[in-house]
Design brief:
The complex is a heterotrimer, with 1 copy of chain A (253 residues) and 2 copies of chain B (194 residues).
Chain A: H1 13-24, H2 33-49, H3 56-73, H4 97-123, H5 150-166, H6 169-174, H7 180-193, E1 197-199, H8 210-225, E2 229-232, E3 241-244
Antiparallel strand pairs in A: 1-3, 2-3
Helix pairs in contact in A: 1-4, 2-3, 7-8
Chain B: H1 3-17, E1 22-23, H2 24-31, H3 35-51, E2 56-61, E3 64-69, H4 74-82, H5 91-103, E4 106-107, H6 108-115, H7 120-128, E5 132-137, E6 145-149, H8 151-156, H9 174-188
Antiparallel strand pairs in B: 1-3, 2-3, 4-6, 5-6
Helix pairs in contact in B: 2-3, 5-7
Classes of the chains: A mainly alpha (253), B alpha+beta (194).
């Protein structure tokens, strides 16, 4: 059951992978598997260190990546153009191919979901009014009601409760999640304000949510990778110091 | 803002205010224009609507402005009401009936608290269709009327008795639902994934 | 009946039909005017409304015509205490819905295969919001439930019909994606050669 909770910032392993590929600015059709696998595993490790339960899907993907990585290390057979039909060997196929196909398909739906989001936002900007009661327009002598079933009654109830649940749009909207990119900028500002140094614990507010923690962590990893910051820990269990990396001063925030 | 744009905004406000209507003071606060000017503008709009042969009109009920249909269009609405496939109970009436069915007997203000809107019109419809009846009066201030379903209600929905109603698909205690929703938003942070 | 009067009647019918909407065929039967003429008249009315700076517009949602407010008036409605709240879907629900919308009908495991994660909770959310429905069962082991979108789906996104969905970015067939990928791998090798 513990495995059913997923990493907060990502919709799943494919989402995380797409993020890593995007950040690494590599070709999705030619993924540097060793590099991406390393980053993927590192992210999962950090999550576990933060005691976030890592969903089984993330673990399965880690295994898949490792298996692709090992296959890539094997010497590739020479291409045999005229292989017998039944003998279409697996080795001939790029071990990454299936993963790439899955990533591409998932990405496609992610883009479509984005378009749906835009349409939803547009539709949320217009209001209608409830349909008017037509009963008064039915002639008085006719007391019967037509086309109303028990199902309609239950359905009405469901709609009603749904409306009550949706009545809190402001709470939802205000819970704006911060992007990794914004968090990166914030951290660099904090470091700068702190005279080139900030304690790790200072990066988190008291009531920091899991997604804030995860976002902050990913932002730190990104900054380290980009060599904007370095992390120093003098002694075990001591607070980690986030320091501005040499030469990072002149970079644009 | 020019007057034409202002009139458009006021029409939109009237449109979404529905049966509850909206008064000049509220409009004035929203559009940030003095109340007297709002009143003048609405008088203007009434004339505009008539002149343009519009299908709706602005009426003043209990100091609130409302958009309503035109009395001369009633024959068309009658045709709509009796056209095939047309449900003769509105969503409002259905919701009200569902609440009464599951929580009877209860008062109008209790229903309104659950629905969050007035339901006088819906109650009248349901009474005239004999789907609900007055079932005595509640204790307390004003001794308000209690509503309950009727024999005709059971007949229409093919129920032997009221206890034959299916389990409510949802929690009908709106306060609890709201709390649930709030709790869910909290939980959402832990489980954004599904 | 002249066209101006007819437009007034149609406006009244649109107004009274509210969020349920009314389609051209129904209007045509009620006003006894051919359906194509009704469609033309409504197109005319859309333009009239814009020209006159009206506060409402006619939109086509789920094959029915509806009156709605204007998007640019949102800031004013937000100041209204009773402003109708509308809901947005979580990313998980939206991704699941996108897959269903484009590949319907399909089973839960087919959706999960694409998303790479379980989606039971997202499906339940979508079912309770009536954006999807169960559409029979697939052949094969266990005869799993098939899911498809509903009329409420069209309403939620303001679509006239399912074919109005935006074009998918590229081919959605996994087999074709594979071929595409293979083709690209091929090209890549060519490129690396020069």
């Amino acid at each position: 059951m513990a495995y059913s909770i997923k990493l907060d910032s990502f919709e799943g392993p494919l989402d995380l992978l797409l993020h890593l590929i995007d950040k690494a600015e590599v070709d999705i059709y030619d993924i540097p598997i060793a590099e991406i696998t390393e980053q993927y595993l590192a992210t999962i490790d950090r999550m576990q260190e933060l005691q976030l339960d890592v969903a089984s899907e993330f673990v399965v993907m880690a295994a898949t990546l490792l298996s692709i990585k090992s296959k890539m290390l094997l010497p590739r057979k020479e291409e045999q153009v005229f292989q017998p039909f039944l003998d279409m060997d697996v080795e001939e196929v790029d071990p990454r191919e299936e993963l790439v196909a899955r990533l591409l398909e998932y990405k496609r739906y992610k883009l479509l979901a984005e378009q749906l989001r835009e349409m939803e936002i547009g539709r949320n900007k217009v209001f209608t009014r409830p349909a008017e009661n037509l009963a008064p327009y039915v002639r008085e002598e006719d007391h019967t009601i037509k086309n109303v079933t028990l199902y309609d009654l239950i359905h009405a109830l469901e709609k009603l409760v749904q409306k009550a649940k949706d009545k809190e749009p402001m709470t939802k909207v205000s819970r704006d999640e911060i992007s990794i990119k914004d968090r990166m900028t914030q951290i660099r500002q904090l470091v700068r304000v702190g005279g080139g140094m900030v304690r790790f614990s200072q990066l988190f507010s008291k009531g920091a949510t899991r997604s804030e923690i995860v976002t902050t962590f990913l932002a730190l990893l990104e900054l380290m990778k980009a060599k904007h910051i370095t992390c120093i820990q003098n002694q075990l269990f001591q607070d980690i110091m986030i320091c501005e990396a040499e030469g990072a001063q002149n970079d644009e925030l | 803002m020019n007057y034409d744009k202002l009139k458009g905004v006021i029409e939109g406000l009237l449109f979404i205010s529905g049966d509850e209507g909206i008064d000049a003071r509220q409009i004035s606060e929203i559009v940030e224009v003095p109340e007297e000017e709002v009143v003048d503008l609405i008088e203007d709009m009434k004339a505009d609507f008539r002149r343009a042969g519009r299908g709706v009109q602005i009426v003043e009920v209990a100091k609130a402005y409302q958009l309503t249909t035109l009395p001369e269009h009633v024959p068309y609405f009658e045709r709509l009401a009796t056209s095939p496939g047309q449900s003769t109970l509105s969503q409002a009436a259905l919701e009200t009936l569902a609440i009464i069915a599951y929580k009877q007997p209860l008062t109008r203000s209790e229903i309104e608290e659950i629905r969050g809107v007035k339901c006088e019109k819906a109650l009248n419809t349901l009474l005239s269709k004999q789907l609900i009846r007055e079932a005595g009066r509640a204790e307390g201030i004003g001794r308000p009327i209690l509503y309950a379903t009727t024999k005709e209600f059971l007949e229409h929905f093919g129920l032997r008795e009221i206890s034959d109603l299916p389990e409510p698909p949802v929690n009908l205690d709106i306060e609890e639902v709201r709390m649930e929703a709030t709790a869910l938003f909290g939980k959402q942070e832990e489980k954004t994934n599904d």
